[in-house]
Amino acid sequence: MKLFKFNFNLESLEKYQPNSLRFFIVMSVALVVIVGIVAMSIFFLAVRGGEQTLVPELRGKELAEALLEMQVKELYPRIQLRYSQSAKDKGQILEQDPVAGTIVKAGRRIRLVVSQGVIVNRVENYIGRNIEDVRIDLQALAASSGSVLLSLREPLMFDFSSETPGTIIRQKPEPGSDISGPTRLEFVVSRGQENTLVTVPQFVSLTVASALEQIGKAGIDFEFSIRERHEGEKGETVVSQNPPAGVSVTSNVVVYLTVNTPARLGDNEIFGVFEYSMPKNPYPLPVRLEAQLPSGERTRILEVEYPGGKFTAPYHLPLNSVLVLYLMNREIYRETAP
Predict the structure, then answer these.
(1) Which of 68, 124, 302, 330, by CA, is between 20 and 30 Å from 232?
(2) Spatial distance between the Cα atoms of 110 and 108, rounded to a whole number of angstroms
(3) For the whole prediction, is pTM greater than 0.85?
(4) 280-334 pLDDT tens trace
């Protein structure tokens, strides 16, 4: 077996060692310099930051609108939620920091205080307010809070009083009572004075348009009927009424009015009486009858405070007009004029 001979020359190693050490030292120094340059570049870029921008006025705006404005300015939100004094404030910016007009660097975070709506912990004083206005407020409160904290006990209770019909005269729980959970409000609502007397106006000989206008102001219950025009009569007028003019009656007494047909009716026109049976109300509510003409135009026929029952109103319209009945500005019925 042949053995290889390995000669270790110490002098050769000592000859090359100084060059290798020098190379290592140079490379180490170069690496440190490069790392230092990179670090200094990052530092100065961070110190310089972005461009300056003007903080916009965000208070009173909806959150979505405010965020869009901030996006344009390259600003970012830091949002805080807070209850406010009004249900209408929900989703709006109540406060901001920094304030509008401050010059900041792009990328700055702006603190926004956003309304969560109103928090209710006590029963309000509803006495003296109109029941329909309170209904709207309670609906808005439920929509803003996401839960039905206060609701009305139905049916409502009514009583005669000197207050305007529809006014809340008593409530339970009492104003200022603490709320610990969902609460039902019990109201006693005024139906007006008992046996209030009104004087029946003069309707005979009035045109239909004038009679409808007079009814809107009189505060009386009424019912219309039609008969054919007699020879020598002026058409489309009130020819009889019961009770007669000048008589004092209670406000719930029905005044019956008879009108005659027009002297002339076009081929594309119709004259008739609109009829609709409404539920009886404890007090008169605003009712409006409109007509939508084939041209798309709308015309008002009658607007009156009405207690309910059989609602009637004469009309003279183009064929295919649509009659629309509203109760408290809410459509409850429509029909095409026959």
Answers:
(1) 302
(2) 6
(3) no
(4) 888 888 999 999 999 999 999 999 989 899 999 999 999 999 999 999 889 999 9
Question: Residue 174 burial (CB < 10 Å; 0-12/13-18/19+)?
Answer: exposed
Chain position carrying tokens 């027009």: 262
- Residue whose entry in the numeric block shows the structure tokens 């901001």: 96
Q: Give me the DSSP letters along 83-144.
A: EES-GGGTTBEEEEESPTT-EEETT-EEEEEEEEEE---B----TTSBHHHHHHHHHHHHHH
How is domain 52-118 classified at the CATH fold level? Trypsin Inhibitor V; Chain A (3.30.10)
Nearest to 189 by CA among 158, 155, 163: 158
Q: What's the full length of the chain, in residues?
A: 338
Residue range(s) of every CATH 3.30.10.20 domain in the chain: 52-118, 197-336
The answer to whether the CB of 84 falls within 8 A of the CB of 120 is: no
Q: Specify the fold of 197-336.
A: Trypsin Inhibitor V; Chain A (3.30.10)
